[in-house]
Amino acid sequence: MITARMIKKQLQPIRKMANDFEIIRNNQSIGFVKAFVCGKDYPNTIQTVEETEILDNDCLVFQSKKYYVTNAQPKAFDNEVCYYMLEYSTDPKVSESNNRNEVNNVFHFNAPLNGTNVIGSHDFTLNIDNSIKNIQEIINNKTEDKEALQKLLDEIKEASVNNKPLTKGIFSKFSDLLAKHSDVAIAVGKFFVKLFF
Q1: How far apart are CA 152 and CA 166, in angstroms?
Q2: Which of 20, 100, 128, 137 is the most buried (most CB within 10 A)?
Q3: d(CA 159, CA 155)
């Protein structure tokens, strides 16, 4: 069985050869990450060699070249993120298009949670971008617990798209599953951060 410790140990020699990419988020530099541009087997992909969080629409900069992240996938073992695989485009218009698509996929609804309101009794804007799609891709790549993970995603979709309240205790019902599959938990967390903030 592959463990996080094994993966991190394998990444150590690669880390020494990796480059320092500057992370730009919301037009501000937030730090650096050790990473490398993948070869032909993974076109338009950057792999980090550490667990520094990278988000969709971040921009990585190396030697003045900008890489716009279109799909950030955390890779976790033993419920611990070890590195990220980042699909990218070098075209800034792709990044702008992704941001515009987020704005165009807007729904309005009240979000009561068993009679109480999550954010108040007024409408708010829900921005459902490709987060649901990212969660679905992660689940599709799973070999175990696929059906239970799909049930979780179906409940999240129904609540977010069909203006239905989240079922009380939804996360406690799936807590063992989310603890076992931290990559899904991270993606779900990102979805709810985008949902409410």
Answers
A1: 11
A2: 128
A3: 6
